[in-house]
DNA sequence: CGGAATCCCGCGAGATACTG
DNA sequence: CAGTATCTCGCGGGATTCCG
């Protein structure tokens, strides 16, 4: 066979549009819910909760509740999540470097079509 | 600054959940609309059209219309799109290899929560 | 063949209020 | 603080039909 779990793999990495941003933030170390919320521009509480649940379900991060007052929940990449982040580094670097070119292409396209 | 276009970059690569699959298919060479549609499981005509438009707008692929009968439209990666696919290779390889682990984590999570 | 146009439904996601 | 719960609305996206 050529590349059997290709579609599944592609779907897994594109499952959630916030996943990459969350992984990036968690790459620097554990984060609390509110830290993630503040660090990710435009995400709502509800959607962040859902994204974190999905990633926890996929085994990419752990969710640890500290029963103190006030409550404290911290999220941290698992080895699996760390591996995915490592594998994504070239793409993240590319997207940072080439973003201006993409934005230029968009402006060009929009101008052409008015 | 540390990494300024990070959010923009992450959004650009997660903009469309079909993008990676389309890019993967186009990596092997130009494709016609119907070939892409058949090759991508579960995508509808409307959604494929929209995804291709978005990628064309981002400068990742070109759309070439051949005015013959019957009509013929072919899509092909630009150098920019090719660069993105190259940068995505480690992540694609990772997702293919680790997909079983992700699926196992999901099954485990679902079993635990019933 | 490769769309565009139209209709329409359901889920994604914002806002707000409430809890352990 | 870190969620759940509820209500609401918009638009993402399926099905179908028409066109060059």
Describe this entry's structure for a reader.
The structure is a homodimer of 114-residue chains. In chain A, strand 2 and strand 3 (72-77) form a beta hairpin. In chain A, 63% of the residues lie in helices and 12% in strands. The first copy, chain A, has helices at 6-13, 19-27, 33-39, 45-57, 79-113, and strands at 31-32, 61-66, 72-77. The first copy, chain A, has 114 residues and is α+β, with helices and mostly antiparallel strands. A three-stranded antiparallel β-sheet of chain A has the order 1-3-2. Chains A and B meet through helix 1, helix 2 and helix 5 of A and helix 1, helix 2 and helix 5 of B. The structure holds a DNA duplex (20 and 20 nucleotides).
